[in-house]
Amino acid sequence: MNESRTVPVAPVARAPGGGACDRASKPKRIFDSRVLFDGGQELQIEHNGEIYTLRVTSKGKLILTK
Asked: Which terminus of the chain is more exposed, N or C, with fewer CB under 10 A?
């Protein structure tokens, strides 16, 4: 059974070297995976009406599957 939860995420804007970012100086959004996973090993992402699963492997890598 998949339980849906909403986790508040505060993006952190960073620019390499402290300068302006590319694409008309729009800052990139960086999310801390620990906040996204909230202590779990798997989360689901909806993109263009499709559900994707993002998992943390036993070696700490990320795998995205549809």
From this structure: N
